[in-house]
Amino acid sequence: MVIYGVSATSRLLAGRPVVEVAGNLRMLGAFALLAVAAGAGLFRFVVEE
Amino acid sequence: MMPSNGLRWAGVALASLGVAATLLLHWLVFFWVPTEASMGIIQRIFYIHVPAAWVAFFAFGIVALCSAVYLWLGDERLDQAAVAAAEGGMVFTTIVLLTGPLWGKVAWGTYWTWEPRLTLTLLLWFIYLGYFLVRSSTENPERGKRFAAVVGIVGAIDIPLIHLSVVWFRSLHPEPVVMKPEGPTLDPDMLLTLMVGLGAFTSLFLGVFLLRYALEAASHVAMLRSRRAEA
Lengths: 49, 231
Fold this sequence. Notes:
heterodimer, A: mainly alpha, elongated, B: mainly alpha, 77% helix, 0% strand
């Protein structure tokens, strides 16, 4: 995800159009969505008092 | 619970069928299937690479499913099945990561490039390597199993991302030629060879998976007996 984030940021800072980083943004969005869902569901199995 | 003999025989039968079908696959690949026009002879690695990738995803799907139900019900057999599937998944992912670069060297001029599908597949391999490390990293085995189950589920998140990465990015990796909305766009002989490969590797995996599961279950029973004898 770091690779996709850095790649998208560097292209945007270089003035490239947003369309060019659409794949990166989709990947980051999908990962965030799945990570939040998995985190919410699995939290109680990992964290103990 | 001790696994039944039926399970073991099913494992032996499926593994034997898988070995026979794998031999047939190699004959088809080397002597029968036509050579692809643009890529030439190196394209034949596709008949090993794609079935291996399918079985790896299938295996890690089993890991995720068994792990999720294990966390829910706490049944030891599900954990044993998850471990057995994870080992198979690791073997087939390794095959994917070895055969892909061999093709890449000829097609792209380099063994490796940090493009999305390759990077995510390597990540998948490392996540499931972590599955085994986490499992053996705790003093309490039950806690290790629980943590490993979580890694097994989280790792499976990578699988749809691997598939979609080729669609979402203008990547070097070839786009799917079978799993397309408009149907497969592959020569019928090539498709048949691919299907033999899928059947062979799936059968081989399921056979070894059942045998490995039976071994894991037997090992668990032996450990319980040993503990009772000590107590």
